Description:
This protein is mainly alpha-helical. The chain is built from 6 helices and 3 strands; from the N terminus they run H-E-E-E-H-H-H-H-H. A hairpin with a 2-residue loop joins strand 1 (about 25) and strand 2 (about 30-35). The longest helix is centred in the C-terminal third of the chain and has 33 residues, at about 175-205. The model is unreliable at about 190-205 (pLDDT under 50).
Amino acid sequence: MLDDKYQRGFTYERLSSVSEPKVHCDDEGFYIFTLSENVKVYFDDYYNFLKNVYRRCQQELAVIDEKLEITPNDKCETVSFFRAKKIIIEIILKTAKSFYTDDSTFGVIMTPWCFGTVLLEKVEIYRERLAKGEINDREIPEFPYYVIKYIDEIHRKTLLDIFDFPEEAFKMRWQYSELLKRYSKVLTNITKSLNSVLTTIKTYGT
């Protein structure tokens, strides 16, 4: 359980009854050859990793909120730094929860380093949208220059610290990104094919 209230997406019972060629079981438990990387990942290990990430995020957010509470509003850069860090941590927290509870696709099961790459891209996409004025966020002041500046400066280190990764974890970034994009394209093609089949069936049925 995550936070004592969120159940993991693929439970032991669910895995025991699933008929997925990539899912197997040995003495250490259920595992899958991930859809994005074709790497062996144990479900229990992956969910424990997400739980640890989620817990670290909660602890970090508590510290940040306390510092924001005692920092005077006229300390613009200091406040912006804490707000930027809070935005990054909240993105990690929400994604960890989303992946932990997702029971719709095995695509959310991946190696920790690949998960880190997913978050790196999520944060950078958020930063780009923020810079274009496409996002309304309660943590963003009317003039978000300093918040954007600090997101740029600290997002990689913040991610590495939360995940407890070495610096080289993100050196595989483009390889992981390409794999994820390829997997996404495959899913899109499958969906289009299924829709085409359904349309054909409906046509013949009328």
